[in-house]
Each structure stands twice: as structure tokens, then as C-alpha cells.
């Protein structure tokens, strides 16, 4: 399998909207400099909050739906031989029955401020979404002082039965929260207090990829790549770092147990912790991969694992976003332990992408992520013929613009239906990155 890309993709020209794939493992240089200058500073990205003057809540997005008595299944739209004309005519029409669920296991939906449509879609389709995770965009902020947030939006979602679990990205240098007992306790208390004070139902934590980038998860016999280069205090890490990922796993477990000790204000359940994990890329797991033993160690202390089974291809290796065989390999690998059970399968929120990619073919490499709006624009302008890839089980099309050939991979009802069926066969849950980037009638298949 090709190596995982670490860039944050932006849309190619000409489409003008704001598509982004999930942030990948590499930390930005700005964030790293900040952490190096103040190694004991606890720095987080706390999704869904508005820090006055620094992290504005997205502007209101007025979303009106075109409804029809028939679902996409009854309209016979879930099929291989889909046409550009059909997508253009039908993508904005959804079933008027927005409460019917075709997928019965939990569904986690990410919402981002750079696609503010997702905030309205979360409310309109909350009956289909058990967990909603608001995300913020790349700011490194210390959680202190007073914060403002959209309490009405959170309350409305919770009143409709959805759990609101903001996505938190841990950006601090690993030594701060993994080896310093007082700082670890402070970080955990900070996150628990934020949930309790704001009335959230828990958090989605992303840290594994960043720990891997720092070398925390490397073979213990190898010298740490970054340790000893920051301050004299951290020059002798060889002995302190011998347990590989045990310190990392212990932090996640302690955070989960702390959240579980607090009851949610909106429900009778305890606060939840869902941990973001990368999908295995190779046949053999490396030391930096999240594997079945890690899954088993954390299962009793967590409520789920958001598995990033998307972003398989990139500008250097154009192709499908989430080949079905890769999804199957990821699930087979993670659930290979003899102690795996159906309850463990349900804890995995299988990643489904609502974004696509427009790759350049004629100039060697290039291109990037696109949203549904971009996809519709391209269909209307070029009227391409959509092809079904029997290997990846995804639709794609080729078009030329000013002599440059492009390949576009974007989800269709059929490709989504195939992946939902796979999730049902495995008994997993779903996670969607992210609902502001999809076409309206995608929600009919959920």
C-alpha cells in the first residue's frame, strides 16, 4: 500500500469551495515552534468552542431541503450505471422521512467551520446521527479563561437525542502529558472540566498520529528522534522512553476513566471518550501503527475508536479514497485478536468520506480535495461519463481542462451503500468526515 500522505489538502482550481480531508499526522511548524518555546504549556485544539476574538463560530448557514415522498432506494438511484445528468437532477432531493434509519448502529458525524453547511445538516438529520463532533481549524490554544460557544446549537442537538462530543487534538510535546505526572493530571482535569462546564457529552481525542510523528511510538531500542533537542531537562530520555507506547496508552485510559466518572447533563450516561486511530497501511504492522493489542488494552476505558479508513490515495498516487479491500484489511487486522467480540466491533466507528478528490494526471501529480458543490460544478461543466472501478468499488470520471487530464473520485450512493453494507456485516459503527462536504441525498442511505 502507498505511504500515508501528511498534507492538509485544499481544493484544486477552478472549484472555489473549502474541501479538506482530516488533518494528518504531521504537526505544523508553527505549532511545533510554540511547543518547543514552552514545553510545559498544555496546548489543545478544542473543537466547537469560540475563543473571543480568536476562534469565531461559523456564520449561520441557511439550509433549505427539497423533499420527496420517496427515498433514494425507491427512486432507484443506488446503482452502478449512474449518470451525471441523474446526479445533477436528484442530488438535492431527500426523503421527507428524515427520521428513518437504514443503518442501525451508532453514527458519528464530524462538522467543520470551513463547511458551515454541516451545522445545519447536523440539526436536520440528527435522528440519523447518534454522535456529532464539531471541529475547529488549526489554532493552537490554551484552555484557560472564559470561552463562548453556541449553546443553543448544542442544546438543540442534544434535545433531538444526539450526543455532542467535540474533537480535541492534543498538540503538546508528548513529554508534557505522558511523563510529567502533574501535567498529565492537569491535562485530564482540564478536558473533563471543559465537558462538564459546557454541557458536552464527552470528547473525540486525536493524538496517536501526532505521537507517532514525535517518535513516541517507535521501537524502544531506538534513540528518540526529537528528545534531547528541546531543553536540557529532556536530554536523557533513552531510559524513560523504554515502554514504547505504554505511557501513551495509559494517558488515554486515565482520561477515559476520568470522563466515565462524570455523568452527562443531557443524558443518564457518563461522559464519552472516542479515540481517533489511523487505518493500517501495510500488511505487517509497524511500531507506530495502532494494532489489535492496543485496541484490547483501551477497550474497557473507552467508548469507541474513530477509524480513518479514507484518504488512501493522494496527488502522488492518484486513485480511490477508500478501496473496499483496504477497509476489509483494516478491520481484519484490528479485530484479529482472539479476544475480539461483536461488542468490540461495534466500538469501531468505520470511517466514511463525504469528500472526494480531483487529481491532475497530465502533469505528473497535483490536485486535492473537493466537496459536493465542487463535484456538482464539474458534472455540470464537463458532463462526464462516470465509471465504476471493480477493484475499489468506487465511481470516478476523467475530464480534460486546457489540455490537462483530471481524474475525479467522489462518493456516490452506490459506493456509500457498499461501505454501509460492509459495516453492517462486521457489526461496526460509522464515522463520517464530514457532513458539510456531502450531497444532500447521501443522508438517505444512513
UniProtKB/TrEMBL annotation:
Span list, region Disordered: 1-26
GO cellular component terms, A-Z: endomembrane system; extracellular region; lysosome
Segments forming domain GH18: 105-446
Record protein name field: Chitinase domain-containing protein 1
PANTHER family: CHITINASE DOMAIN-CONTAINING PROTEIN 1, CHITINASE DOMAIN-CONTAINING PROTEIN 1 FAMILY MEMBER
UniProt similarity note: Belongs to the glycosyl hydrolase 18 family.
Subcellular location: Lysosome; Secreted
Biased composition (Basic residues): 1-11
Entry keyword annotation includes Transmembrane helix: yes
Alphabetized PROSITE patterns for the sequence: GH18_2
Major localisation: other
Keywords: Lysosome, Membrane, Secreted, Signal, Transmembrane, Transmembrane helix
Membrane-spanning residues: 34-53
Amino acid at each position: 500500500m502507498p505511504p500515508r500522505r501528511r498534507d492538509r489538502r485544499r481544493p484544486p482550481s477552478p472549484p472555489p469551495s473549502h474541501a479538506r480531508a482530516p488533518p494528518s499526522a504531521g504537526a505544523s511548524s508553527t505549532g511545533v515552534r510554540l511547543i518547543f518555546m514552552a514545553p510545559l504549556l498544555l496546548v489543545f485544539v478544542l473543537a466547537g468552542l469560540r475563543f473571543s476574538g480568536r476562534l469565531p463560530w461559523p456564520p449561520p448557514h441557511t439550509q433549505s431541503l427539497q423533499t420527496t415522498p420517496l427515498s433514494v432506494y425507491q427512486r432507484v438511484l443506488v446503482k452502478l450505471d449512474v449518470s451525471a445528468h441523474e446526479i445533477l437532477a436528484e442530488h438535492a432531493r431527500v426523503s421527507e422521512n428524515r427520521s428513518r434509519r437504514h443503518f442501525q448502529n451508532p453514527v458519528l458525524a464530524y462538522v467543520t467551520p470551513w463547511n458551515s453547511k454541516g451545522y445545519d445538516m447536523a440539526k436536520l438529520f440528527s435522528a440519523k446521527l447518534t454522535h456529532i463532533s464539531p471541529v475547529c481549524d488549526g489554532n493552537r490554544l490554551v484552555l484557560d479563561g472564559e470561552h463562548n460557544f453556541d449553546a443553543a446549537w448544542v442544546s438543540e442537538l442534544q434535545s433531538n437525542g444526539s450526543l455532542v462530543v467535540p474533537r480535541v487534538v492534543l498538540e503538546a510535546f508528548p513529554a508534557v502529558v505522558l511523563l510529567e505526572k502533574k501535567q498529565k493530571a492537569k491535562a485530564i482535569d482540564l478536558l473533563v472540566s471543559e465537558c462538564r462546564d459546557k454541557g458536552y457529552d464527552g470528547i473525540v481525542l486525536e493524538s496517536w498520529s501526532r505521537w507517532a510523528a514525535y517518535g513516541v511510538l517507535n521501537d524502544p531500542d531506538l534513540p528518540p528522534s526529537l528528545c534531547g533537542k528541546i531543553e536540557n531537562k529532556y536530554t536523557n530520555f533513552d531510559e524513560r522512553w523504554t515502554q514504547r507506547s505504554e505511557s501513551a496508552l495509559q494517558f488515554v485510559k486515565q482520561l477515559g476513566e476520568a470522563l466515565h466518572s462524570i455523568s452527562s447533563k443531557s443524558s443518564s450516561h457518563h461522559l464519552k471518550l472516542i479515540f481517533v486511530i489511523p487505518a493500517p497501511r501495510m500488511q505487517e504492522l509497524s511500531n507506530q501503527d495502532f494494532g489489535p493489542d492496543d485496541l484490547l488494552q483501551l477497550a474497557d476505558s473507552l467508548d469507541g475508536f474513530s477509524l480513518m479508513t479514507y484518504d488512501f490515495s493522494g496527488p502522488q498516487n492518484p486513485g480511490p479514497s477508500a478501496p473496499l479491500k483496504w477497509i476489509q484489511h483494516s478491520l481484519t487486522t484490528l479485530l484479529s485478536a482472539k479476544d475480539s467480540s461483536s461488542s468490540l466491533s461495534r466500538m469501531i466507528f468505520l470511517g466514511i468520506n463525504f469528500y472526494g478528490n480531483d487529481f491532475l494526471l497530465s502533469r505528473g501529480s497535483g490536485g486535492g480535495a473537493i466537496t459536493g458543490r465542487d463535484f456538482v460544478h464539474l458534472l455540470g461543466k464537463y458532463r462526464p461519463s462516470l465509471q465504476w472501478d471493480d477493484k475499489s468499488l468506487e465511481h470516478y470520471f476523467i475530464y480534460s481542462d486546457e489540455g490537462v487530464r483530471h481524474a475525479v473520485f467522489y462518493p456516490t450512493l452506490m459506493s456509500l451503500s457498499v461501505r454501509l453494507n460492509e459495516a453492517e456485516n462486521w457489526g461496526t459503527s460509522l464515522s463520517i468526515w464530514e457532513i458539510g462536504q456531502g450531497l444532500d441525498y447521501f443522508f438517505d442511505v444512513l
